Amino acid sequence: MEIEICTIGGYEQVGKNMTAVRIDNEVIIIDMGIYLPAIINYEGEDWHTLSANQMIDYGALPNDNIIKEWIRDVKAIILGHCHLDHIAGVPYLSAKYRAPIYGTPFTIEVLKTILDDENIILPNKMVAMLSGKKVKISKNIEFEFVNVTHSTLQTVMIAIHTLKGTILYANDFKLDNHPVLGKKPDYLKLKDIGKNGVLCLIVESLYAEKDMKTPSEKVARELLKDVLLGVDNKGKAIFVATFASHLARIRSAIDFGKSLNRRVVLLGRSMGKYVSSAEHVQLIEYSKEAQICGYSNQIKATLRDIDRNRGKYLVVCTGSQGEPSSILDKLINKQLPFRFKEGDHVIFSCKTIPSPLNITNRQALEDALKKEKVRLFLDIHQSGHAAREDLRDFINLVKPKNIIPAHGELHMEQALENLAKEMGYHDSQIHVMGNGKRLIL
Ligand SMILES: [Zn+2]
Ligand SMILES: [Zn+2]
Asked: Is the separation of the CB atoms in 385 and 408 below 8 Å?
């Protein structure tokens, strides 16, 4: 049996994740993401009009042309979680593979929303499945999902079992023992997989340079509680900016909004979409506790009321990156019927994803808010990604023979390489690959 791994995308940047695993003459594709900064930076009219190959040239999609000769051998496309850097390439790339797409129910639901939005109908069959069940792809290949924690729901590691050992794909995760929503990582399962032999671990390196253990989501919840319940906000507007897909964070905001006797409003199109996807697969029921405003008319009507009764609401919205056309951006540009006043609160329950454009946008947003004398509360957040000490524990748990650092720029992957060496791995076992490279195991 010959196993070959092709690192199609996401091995030189944070985004456009895509990996192919060939087991003799059968191929499994894991993730098909986009590179968001390329899309945000796009200067043409509408990037939706670009062809897949144009998007590849532009750097927005992983270059899967390098596995052209494998097209007919692809047996499955497996998605680890619903973030766009892992699934948003599916509408453009997956049809030619004629293989089913597997993901957890929430991941598949989010994918369907993206496809609906872009009016794309894929020929691929979509299979929603929970972690803990094995799927037989062929005589020689089985795979299963292993539950882990991350900054969105139903995130899984993907274990592909072969006669030569398991290929374990661990993008993205944190080791959170106190998640606010969902279960803890399935350590028992991971240990078990480790015992049976992990031939190769493909693992994120985003924070391999950070000497720490990423704090639990429970810590982020406490930070949010502290600024919402511990600071006088009587009669002031409160906006909590976070990622629309971060349903645990939204849960906390709803809880503290209720403690403050404020009406909680989830504002914005993408916020509405993620919440309704999660409700659809019965993970949450936020619409029973909060008002969800996804459409432009609703948003305007609600904001008019918030403008008049600012002390009665708590607004959760997007715009945490200062991205143009987000709710916060439109508010500050006075495109919506609400005006910030002195002493209003804006809580950034997020981190700026450090691309130059994001940093500029976010700075401009903060400056504009300060000009209105709004009180800013930054960094009310904890990451969804493992840091160096989590990575060490994780590698110890699953004891892989080979390691491919992934989901990062080269310097991040090299930091993970150094960690592995520190742990006793030899050069021949650690493979910093870059995009479009192949490794025969
Ligand atoms: Zn993610
Ligand atoms: Zn990611």
From this structure: no
**pTM, 2 dp:** 0.96
Residue 38 is predicted with a pLDDT of 84
Cα 258 to Cα 237, 252, 263, 305, distances in angstroms: 15, 10, 7, 18
* Average pLDDT over every residue of 311-335: 88
**Ligand 2 ion: Cβ-proximal residues, 5 Å cutoff:** 85, 172
Task: Verify that 237 and 348 share a domain, yes or no.
Answer: yes
> Residue 141 has what pLDDT?
97
> How many domains are there within the chain?
2
Nearest to 104 by CA among 272, 285, 284, 281: 281
Q: Which ligand is nearest to the CA of 206?
A: 2
Confidence class for position 260, pLDDT limits 50, 70, 90 = very high
- Same domain assignment for residues 226 and 121: no
Give residues with Cβ within 8 angstroms of 52, minimum separation 6. Answer: 61, 92, 93
Looking at the fold, whether 152 and 223 belong to one and the same domain comes out as no
Distance 169 CA to ligand 2 centre (A): 12
**Which-ligand-closest: CA of 82?**
1
Contacts of 253 (CB under 8 A, 6+ apart): 224, 228, 240, 242, 264, 314, 316, 349
Instruction: Judge if 67 and 167 occupy the same domain.
Output: yes
Same domain? For 75 and 141 the reply is yes
Q: Which ligand is nearest to the CA of 384?
A: 1
Lowest mean pLDDT among 53-57, 99-103, 321-325, 385-389: 321-325
